[in-house]
Amino acid sequence: MTVAQDNKSQWLSIEQKYLPVHFQLAQLLDLVMSADIPQHKILRGTGLFYEDLVRSDALICPKQMAVLVANTQQYLSHQEVSFRWGASLWPGYAGVFSQSLGASESLLAALETLKLFRHWLSPVVVPDIHITDTLCLVYWKNTYGVDEKVRRFFVEAYMSALVSLTIEHSVDGQSHWRCGVQHLDANGPHRVYLGEHVSCLNMDVMVIERREAEIEWRKGSMHLRELATQQALTAYRHVDAETFPEAVQVYLSSRLSEATSVAVAAEAFSMSCATLKRRLSAYGTHFQALLDEVRMQHSLYLIHVLGWSNERIADYLNVGDSANFRRAFKRWTGLSPSASRDKYASFIPRQIKSNQSSHTNSELPPSGLPEYAL
């Protein structure tokens, strides 16, 4: 069976209108309007009018959200809007999606909901969540290829949202997240909204110990969460859909040790090479970029969590010898493997690394990174 035949969901596009306007856009507009920015300036280029914002049935697409964020940055570039928006974003007002998130009985359960409803709770830049024996890792993917400044706005918002949600619901009122960001301003708001454990890394990632994520939350209810989840799956079309680049990366992750190419991937998706390239181009990306991102993500995990050698990683990723891997890794991350080890040394605590490395189930399965059954 090909990937296309096995895919039961329609691939989402950046121009697909599926998001109710009151889910997240209304919260962002409240912040912007409080700064006395004229509505027409913020809505310019979005194709939205004020009348649309008060209609309960109005739908918007990720592209409209991205344009509105770009307008916001133009007029409110120094007012921490991304962090402020994120801090009040979740559970939020996204109907049954928020109900499912708010009823989570633990952070681990919240990550399950966030993974399932990522395109509804975290549109434009979505979380890629992996759970190992000892760690929970959250990467942030620019799934629609939006402008870098816009991408950063969403990453800051959603990181802030996840930290705020954790603090609000945890028993001790603490976050315990360690956040790595690509752009860290020493005098900026990162530590105010994300906590003290913020590091400047070469990717945007959040890490927390699994034992912390498994602690029961104060207001959680498995029954209510499952009920809201089922209601969402029943009421909304394409609720479990993914974008085409996501589907390609899942395919690539399961075949990292095999020789792969555009032609091989196109055959798996029952389409021509030209069609695959054209579909990826519509998302602002291409095949090699997706393959590099998958290899980079696996490399970082293998180096910093499992402590694999360059030679072993090169063999696993099918990139030749260790010298080829070093060159490729520097192209992916801007750092050599040894420099990356030094940079991440204080980001992932030593006891976490040792626990993960010594665990009998810490080896990677054939499908790629260890992942919680979401």
Write a structural description.
By secondary structure, the chain is an alpha+beta fold. 51% of the residues lie in helices and 8% in strands. The chain has 21 helices and seven strands. Strands 3-4-7-5-6 form a five-stranded mixed sheet. It is globular.
SSE series:
HEHHHEHHHHHEEHEHEEHHHHHHHHHH
Major pleated sheet: 5 strands, mixed
Structural class designation: alpha+beta
Helical proportion?
A: 40-55%
At the first level of CATH, the class of the largest domain is Alpha Beta
Number of domains: 2
Mean residue pLDDT: 86
CATH fold annotation of the largest domain: H-NOX domain
Q: How much strand?
A: 5-15%
Give the overall shape, derived from the CA principal axes. globular
Low-confidence stretches: 4-8, 370-374
Head-to-tail CA distance between termini:
23 Å
Which sequence of strands runs across the widest sheet? 3-4-7-5-6
The count of DSSP E runs of length 2 or more, i.e. the number of strands, is: 7
How many individual helices?
A: 21
Instruction: Please compute the radius of gyration using only Cα atoms.
Output: 21 Å
What is the architecture of the largest domain at the second tier of CATH? Alpha-Beta Complex
Entry summary:
By secondary structure, this protein is of the alpha+beta class. The protein has helices at about 5, 25-35, 40-45, 50-55, 60-75, 80-85, 95-100, 105-115, 120, 150-170, 190-195, 210-215, 220-235, 245-255, 260-270, 275-280, 285-305, 310-315, 320-335, 335-345, 350-360; strands spanning about 20, 60, 125-130, 135-140, 180, 200, 205-210.
